[in-house]
Write a structure and sequence with these properties.
Blueprint (H helix, E strand, L loop, with lengths): L5 H4 L15 H9 L2 H29 L13 H23 L5 H10 L7 H22 L1 H13 L25 H22 L12 H16 L8 H15 L2 H4 L4 H6 L1 H16 L2 H6 L8 H12 L4 H17 L1
Helix pairs in contact: 3-4, 3-6, 4-9, 5-6, 5-13, 6-10, 8-9, 8-13
Length: 339
């Protein structure tokens, strides 16, 4: 998602769903021995699996039933695929976000490291885990739909049609440009602005100062942002996530050949364009839209020098008049003497 929603998710209200038995010391000892990095990597891989699995399955359902006798598939189309990805992203954040931070997207992980202080040493582990999650999701869908996909593949080969390209068996797993998209510059622009849109929505959703998104709505809001781009631009080829595309494209290469990576020289666009697009979107938010003072005033952040640093900022910026500053200094001195 591709997503980083831990900060929002951690503000859940305490609630009691069911009565649990007392936690044993044996259980606590077992959990304490688990490496944190392993838990985070498994959560990232599982989260990507949870959203890629229903999305690719919805695509398989649509394409394998496209030859319906009525001429229209009774199993939906792009709307169904967009909904499957949206709900999958929401479930991924809800299930795995509290453990790993819910990145589920290599470009989001890189931006968290660049803007938010996420440890750079964890970045490679997260990215490998994300790609692995998409790879496993693609394999599982291929296994579950293998009879139908095999039949379509055989039919395409019998008719002399390619099995790699748009509306082919390989396109169940990853996207390919349409025959009329010979100018890849337009494909790059489409991918860039789609990824820019998704990243901007994600960054706004995880801003604790944003009053329009609550912790409980963050997963579904991010999912809807992703779905909106599928509904609007999937017909002119988008990938939207390096992990989702690279992981499933490797599966496509296994089953349909290396052309999954070489078709119209598109794969570098699908795999790489989302990274600069996400950086541009997050830079726009961080440099021009973020209001850190609002976050501090609402208790979601603190000045690096504490209250003293905040007072200095108020004084230098003219946000606090001289009389108010003297009054607060006097009050601070009185509190110090009393303590």
């Amino acid at each position: 998602m591709t997503l980083g929603a831990t900060e929002a998710l951690q503000r859940h209200a305490t609630r009691s769903v069911t009565t649990h038995k007392p936690v044993s010391q044996r259980r606590l000892d077992f959990e304490a021995k688990r490496p944190r990095w392993l838990r985070e990597c498994l959560a990232e891989a599982t989260g990507v699996f949870l959203y890629v699995f229903p999305g690719v399955a919805a695509t398989a359902s649509f394409l394998t039933n496209a030859a319906h006798p009525l001429g229209v598939s009774p199993f939906g189309g792009l709307f169904q695929v967009g909904c499957a990805y949206a709900v999958g992203i929401a479930f991924a954040i809800i299930t795995c976000g509290p453990i790993s931070g819910g990145h589920f997207h290599p470009a989001i992980t890189l931006c968290f490291a660049f803007w938010q202080g996420f440890p750079w040493k964890k970045v490679p582990y997260y990215i490998v885990s994300q790609v692995a999650g998409a790879f496993v999701a693609g394999l599982v869908v291929m296994g579950m739909y293998w009879p139908q996909i095999s039949a379509i593949k055989a039919s395409f080969l019998a008719q002399g049609k390619p099995v790699v390209g748009p509306a082919t068996p390989a396109s169940i797993l990853c996207s390919f440009p349409n025959p009329d998209q010979t100018n890849l510059g337009f494909v790059v622009l489409t991918e860039f602005f789609v990824d820019f849109f998704i990243a901007l929505v994600i960054w706004a959703c995880i801003d604790p100062a944003n009053p329009f998104v609550s912790p409980t709505t963050v997963p579904f809001t991010i999912g809807l942002g992703y779905a909106a781009m599928i509904w609007g631009f999937a017909d002119i080829t988008i990938a939207a996530n390096m992990a989702r595309d690279l992981g499933t494209r490797m599966v496509a290469a296994i089953f349909f050949g290396r052309e999954a990576f070489t078709f119209m020289n598109y794969s570098p666009i699908a795999i790489l364009v989302n990274i600069p697009a996400t950086f541009c979107a997050t830079a726009l938010y961080e440099l021009l839209m973020r209001d850190s003072l609002s976050s501090i005033s609402k208790g979601h952040a603190a000045h690096e020098d504490g209250e003293e640093g905040l007072q200095r900022h108020f004084s230098r910026s003219g946000l606090m008049d001289e009389e108010t500053r003297r009054s607060q200094n006097t009050r601070s001195q009185e509190i110090g003497k009393t303590g």
